[in-house]
Amino acid sequence: IPANERGLVQGVSFSGMRFGAAATMPLLGWMMGTLGWRPSFVLLMVVGLLVNGVIRFMQLRIVTPLRQLQAGAEELQRGHFTSKIEIQSQDELGELAKTFNLLAIQLQNWIGTLEERVAERTIELGKANQRNLERAAKLRTISEIGNTITELENLDELLPRTVDIICDAYG
User: Fold this and answer.
1) Residue 10: its pLDDT value, please?
2) pLDDT score for 82
3) Which of 27, 73, 135, 151 lies 20 to 30 A from 158 at CA?
4) pLDDT averages per 10-residue partition of the chain, 171 residues
């Protein structure tokens, strides 16, 4: 503002946003000269109240819902899929909150399904591992029988020794 037009400047800051209103000296001088002191003061108060109302409206309808969405996103990021965003408005922010809540439910269901699938797969892998252990035991027994066959030259010893190996392995 140029030096000859300096005047009344009013600023407001909330929620990290800054708002302000200004009236220059020529404007104030004109208002006081034309309207008088009291009407000028009343007019400035009315304008101030209107600015305050607009700011409050913006806070209630825009800033507060955005903060709720941000808090919900942070909860979701921490893995709290049951938290909901309570925005009841019918505007775009309300629709965004509904969509966000549906997304959280879908993620919770998907993770639950995934946990079930992991549990089922773990059981399947345990069974497969057990089958592989049994197969390995059978192969060890076959290997011992094969070693016995190659080691023994007397057939009269081979059959009892083979029977002993099989009995030891399978009871």
Assistant:
1) 47
2) 84
3) 135
4) 45 53 57 68 78 82 85 88 83 87 90 92 96 92 86 80 84 72
Could you give the CA distance from residue 5 to residue 33 in angstroms, rounded to a whole number?
16
Q: Which of 18, 23, 13, 20 has its CA nearest to residue 43?
A: 23
Distance CA 38, CA 130 (A): 94
Q: Are 105 and 83 in contact (CB under 8 A)?
A: no
In 3-state terms the chain splits into helix, strand, coil percentages (rounded to 5) of 75, 10, 15
- How far is 44 from 36, CA to CA, in rounded Å? 12
